[in-house]
What we know:
Elements: H1 2-14, E1 18-23, E2 27-32, E3 40-46, E4 51-58, H2 74-87, H3 93-104, H4 110-125, H5 128-131, H6 135-145, E5 150-156, E6 166-173, H7 175-184, E7 188-195, E8 203-210, E9 216-224, H8 229-243, E10 252-255, H9 261-268, E11 273-276, H10 278-288, H11 292-303, H12 307-320, H13 322-329, H14 353-361, H15 370-393, H16 401-414, H17 421-430, H18 460-465, H19 470-475, H20 502-512
Parallel strand pairs: 7-10, 10-11
Antiparallel strand pairs: 1-2, 2-3, 3-4, 5-6, 6-9, 7-8, 8-9
Amino acid sequence: MEFKEAVREYxxxxxxxxxxxxxxNVRMRAVCKDENCGWxxxxxxxTENNYWxxxxxxxxxxxxxxxxNRLANMKWLAGKxxxxxxxxxxxxxxxxxxxFKTKCDLELxxxxxxxxxxxxxxxxxxxxAAQYGMVRDYGLTLLRSNPGSTVTVGVIPQPNPDDEPxxxxxxxxxxxxxxxxxxxxxxxxxxxxxxxxxxHGGQILSTIGQDANNHIYVIxxxxxxxxxxxNWRWFLELLHQDLGDYKQNKLxxxxxxxxxxxxxxxxxxxxxxxxxxxxxxxxxFNKQWKDLQLRGLLWECARCTSQDGFLESIxxxxxxxxEAWEYLNKWPRHSWSRAFFSNAPKIDNICNNACEVFxxxxxxxxxxxxxxxxxxxxxxxxxxxxxxxxKLNSNTGILPMRWLLLLLRLLLQRLQLSNLQLLMxxxxxxxQKPPPKFNLKPVLPPPVRPPKLPPKRKSCKQEKATPGSxxxxxxxxxxxxxxxxxQPTTLPLAHPMQxxxxxxxxxxxxxxxxxxNPGFRPLRNKK
Length: 527
C-alpha cells in the first residue's frame, strides 16, 4: 500500500517509532508507540474516486528521537540498496552502513544489513544459484567470440540420469592471452589461489605472467571447490596443454607454499625451476623468530647474487640462532635465493607480487556470482592489455624513458668517478646525434662526512683561532680549498666527464653534493 509506505518513510526520516492500530482495505490509523505522545494519522479510502484521503493528522511529537527503528525492515533496506548498488556496483558493507547513518541517522545491526545487502545484490547481479546453470552457455559464448580458447567445465553426475549434474570446476584460457604470453612475455609464471566470498564458496586459481615492462599479464584462471593436490594437478595439466613444451620455452614458476601445489608442479612439470615467494617464507619465519636481526639476514640471503655471499650470510644466521638456520636449510636453496637461481629465465624475482596484485584487483568481484566474477576477470585482462598497448604506442626509441632514467640513476650510483668513461660509450649508442662537447671544470671529490661523535676539543682559544669549522667548509660550494690538502701536480689526464651532456653533469653534481643527515648539528664555539 502506497500510503502505508509513505508513512513508514516519513517516520524513519523523523526517527520516531509508530504502530498501525488499524490497517485494512477501508481505513488505516497509525499512532506513536509512546503513550504520552499525541502523534496520530488517520486515512480512509475514498471509494468514489479510488484514492486515500487523510482525515486526521496531528504532527506533534513529544517523544525523543531514536536511532534504532524497527520500521526499517529488510525489505525497506533492500529497496534503498538496490538503487545505490546500480550506481555503485562495488558497494561495501561499511559504506552501506555509513549511507544509512548519514541519510536517516539509523544504527543498523550487521546481520540485518548483511541480509539486505545480499537481497539487493541478488536483484542487481542476478541469483547466484541460477547463474551456475548458465556456465555452459557462458563457455560456448567465449569459444564463439574467442576462437582457439580453452574452456573446460567439470561437473558431478547424479545417480539419476534425468537429474541435472552439479557444477564442480571450470578452467578458462583465452587464445589472445595464451599467444601473447608465448610471444613477448617473460618466462616466469606466478601461481596462486584465493577464496571466493559467496555463499557457495570455492577457490579461484590463477596464473599470472609479466610482460617486458613488468606489467602483470593474465594467462589462465579456474574456479575449483577446494585447493588441494588433485585440483592443482588438473589445473596445471590444462595449462601445460595450452603453453606447450615448458623445457623448450624455458618456463619458470614462482608461488608460495600452497596446499598440494608443490607436489602437483613436480608431477606435471618434472625438473622445472620452481621458486618460492620469499615474502611468504618470511611471514612463516616471523611466526617463530621475531628477531629483527634474523629478519634482515633472511632477506640478505635471498637477495645475494653470489654463492659466497649467500654462504657468508647463512653462517651469520647459524651463529645467531641454530634452529632458524635448520629451518631455512629445509627449503632448497635454488628456490628462494638469487645466488642459486637457474640461468635459463633471465629474471630474478624473489616475490610473487604479480599474483598478489591480481588478487587485490578482483577482491570486490570475488563476492559476486560466478558468471559476474568470470566476466569481470575477463574484462580486467582485456582492459589491462589494451591500456598498456596505448601507453607503448606513444613511445619511440629503444627503451621507455622511465627505464632510461632508472638505468642512468643506477649507473651514477654504482660507478665510481674514475669509471664514468662507460657513460661515454653508452650515451652515443642510445642517441642518434653525438652529444655536444663542453669545457668542463674539474669536479671535486665529495667531502668526507664528519663522524657521529665529534672529537674532543682541546681549548676554546684554538677554536676561536680557526677561521671556520670543517662542516661549514664542506657545505659551502664556493669555499676555497685549504692549501694543506691541495693535490700535487701530476700529468694531465683525460677528464672522465668529457663528452657527457650538461644534464648528466648536473645530475652527477647533485648526486655528489654533501647532504647532512637529519639531526646532525655542526660544531660551534663555546663563549
